[in-house]
Amino acid sequence: MTAPAHPLVFRPIIKRLREQGHEVEVTARDYAQTLELLDMLGIEHTAFGRHGGESRTKKITALFTRARQMRKFAKGKQFDLAACHGSNDLPIAARRLGIPAADMFDYEFATYQHNVGCRLARRVITPDSIPPARLRRYGVDDQKLAQYPGLKEEYYLADFEPNPDVLEQLGLDPANVLVVLRPPPDVSLYHRKSNPLFPQVVRHLGTHDGVQAVVLPRTTAQKEYVRSLALPSLVIPDHAVDAQSLIALSDLVVSAGGTMNREAVALGTPVYTTYGGRLGGVDEALIHDGRLRPLTDPRALDLHKRPSEGTRTKRDPQLILDLIIQTPR
Known about the structure:
Layout: E1 2-4, H1 7-19, E2 27-30, H2 34-41, E3 46-50, H3 56-74, E4 82-85, H4 89-97, E5 101-104, H5 111-120, E6 123-127, E7 145-148, H6 152-156, H7 165-169, E8 177-182, H8 197-206, E9 211-215, H9 220-229, E10 234-235, H10 243-249, E11 252-255, H11 259-267, E12 271-273, H12 281-288, E13 293-294, H13 318-325
Parallel strand pairs: 1-4, 2-3, 4-5, 5-6, 6-7, 8-9, 8-11, 9-10, 11-12, 12-13
Helix pairs in contact: 3-4, 4-5
């Protein structure tokens, strides 16, 4: 049983498990186009509830409501293992059902999330760029922790080839400088600080000649805000899009979130981060290596066509699958 906050993470894992004759049930919540992405990827799933919004009280209420629904769904079925990425619903439900759970994530400062997920899971799986010492306060010792080299995106995008049709579908002209924009996670508890930089980037690019900037909002409110600006160079899709193909075929990515930044790195596309919270070990390592650039002023963006495709790093998803399967029973 899996609960993907990021559906692509589990796509190769689900495929391999089913090829090996295992039965897999996928659960998800209705948030940030997760359900649309699962449909787009052809992954059958059962949906439980919605995101709790910005209120901490509503978040907690929604969390336990979804966990209760998930527990009811799983009761009476013979699950051997549960795995999630960035979800607390599943570890709570799995603990109540006595099912071993593996908790995956790649940002260590989501304190409220990890104080639940890490303590309830029997295995915690992270990139090795996160110092283990930072996880001790969540009850993660060396026996519970398993780490993998590189980025999770380098594993699930290993067999990915971009589909050029996405440019035509969005009405993009390849002669323009193509930019992908991802807003900050406004409803995340670990990102409470105001992030005025991203609106500045939107306004800067939205009136820039020779640029087409595709904004991929996380929420309806973000979509409505960007559309209200009515800036000529912005493109705001109505539905979920093949974001990985778009990233691979664009000249630049500017994102306040983590996953899209790392997808750009994995696909060899230049990327800037406008993240306003505390940097985690993964971003610290990428910035140190020059693979991710922090942005403080929109005028610093390098708005030029890429001369060629960037360098990609591909890793075998079997490594992460093995770490999940090895979760102590």
